[in-house]
Amino acid sequence: MTRSKNKTWLFIVILASSITIFGLPGVQASERQTTNSSHQPALDAEVENGLSYLIDLAQQPEAVFDPNRVQSLLEFAVADDASARSVDPAKRATGFGVCVRSDIQAPLERILRYGFNPKIPSYVILPKLLRLSGRYPESDLVARDIEIWKSLPTLDKPLVLRGREYEVTTPDMSTGGYYRYDLDRLTVLLHYRGSPLLISVSKMTRPSDVGKRAVIVDDPNWTYFYSGEKGLSPAILKWMDTFIYDTSSVMIFHPASKNRNATNVTLFKWLNAGWLGMNMVKPGHIRAGSERFIENFKYVMESQDMPDDGTLAQKYNQMRTLPDKNLDTLIKNYARNFEQYAMKHNELSEDRFSRLIRNGGYARILNREERVGVLMLEFLKSQFGKQPLIDFDLAVSGDEDLVSKGIAKNAIPRSNMP
Q1: Which of 10, 57, 15, 19 minimizes the C-alpha distance to 269?
Q2: Which residues pair with 221 in a beta bridge?
Q3: Of the four listed, 18, 130, 262, 328, which is most buried by Cβ atoms within 10 Å?
Q4: Is 412 helix (H, G, I), strand (E, B) or coil?
């Protein structure tokens, strides 16, 4: 056992990459401790107070948003001072935190149409980061069917939305673990200094489900394998019961000052995850994960290959409502193609994984929601010029019902970039 414990440092080298900014939970104001490093300048106390206020507010569904409590935080987020980009938030009892900033060459409206759309789950626009995600029915976006981008022209007071969501991550970059967890969500759209500004806050409601084994088959092609079995992928770590214990995020989007068709993004993120209650996450892990998120989000938001949001929502609804018979046709095709793909992969060819894949067996371990997730991922691959593992054409599918529903066609409208 001692030898095994010495290997626990391997856990979560880049686990943070799996926890998205749309679902990064947080810490209590009383948990604030010291800065991440004595060599780094500290954030101003009022900025720290604003972060703590928002994370607390996300957990208090009856509390009223007070914009005066976050003025210093917003001023920090919109500042052009490059020196502020290297300042991380204080360490909290739940772990270290980081601050990452970036620019996305897409307007705020586009980000709202995709990232905060009640008809598009987050995993559809974050294929490298999330396997699955969803909003629970009581969430404001779903219950009130709010299209938040439509509020931009007439916004005269803060629009405050609350909700609860779930996410299932893609495999951790070093251990292959993947996790499911629930999040409280707070979204605020308001005007700040004459421009719209969006605040997105999340807080994990309880520790995640135990980590399960997965394999990164081809990360650039968004191809992953999920075993459904608990543990981690490296043989020496396969016995470990690992969890994400807590995580939080505050993310702020606002139009770039010199280019209104670009959006500045500031992400604050904390993460506590590991084994036997020990937090194995260091600031470098969180920063690497945050940068991975930004990279993937930018790629999707800036791409002209992305279907327009209306078409994407329609395609998701088509996939989600497919009869089981039609779904089986596509997933069996996927499982056969995946098996051929897996035969060339060193790790998947090992018996502990190949026994789940051979003879099209992968189809048998995927539930309905996971099957729909596969269809959406493979559909996105077909749009982005990647290699899909489902044949979305009539000649191969041979299913007239799929064709009539528009599932077996690749040619759909692309997004119109401004």
Answers
A1: 19
A2: none
A3: 18
A4: coil
Question: Residue 234's pLDDT band (boundaries 50, 70, 90)?
Answer: confident
**Structure-token pair, residue 229:** 């079995």
pTM: 0.86
Q: What is the largest CA-CA distance in the chain?
A: 65
- The per-residue pLDDT for 40 is 62
Share of the chain above pLDDT 90, in %: 70
Cα angle 312, 315, 317 (rounded to 5 degrees) comes to 110
Both structure tokens of 189 = 């759209």
**What mean pLDDT do residues 313-318 have?**
96
Q: What is the 3-state secondary structure (H, E, C) of 74-105?
A: HHHHHCCCHHHHHCCCEEECCECEEEEEEEEC
Cα atoms in the 13 Å half-sphere on the side-chain side of 242: 30
Q: Report H helices in 160-282.
A: none
Between β-strands 32-35 and 180-192, what pairing exists: parallel, antiparallel or unpaired?
unpaired
Is residue 417 over pLDDT 60?
no
Report the C-alpha gap between 268 and 210 in whole angstroms: 25
Q: Counting every residue, how long is the chain?
A: 418
Mean pLDDT across 333-361: 92
pLDDT at 103 over 80: yes
Q: How far is CA 76 from CA 50, 116, 158, in A?
A: 11, 24, 19
Please report where in the chains the tokens 């194995």 appear, as a residue: 280
Q: At what angle do helices 309-320 and 368-383 cross, to 10 degrees?
A: 150
List residues bridging with 164 in a β-sheet. 184
**Cα 33–chain centre separation:** 27
Cα(148)–Cα(154) distance, integer angstroms:
11
- The residue whose two tokens read 């309905």 is 368
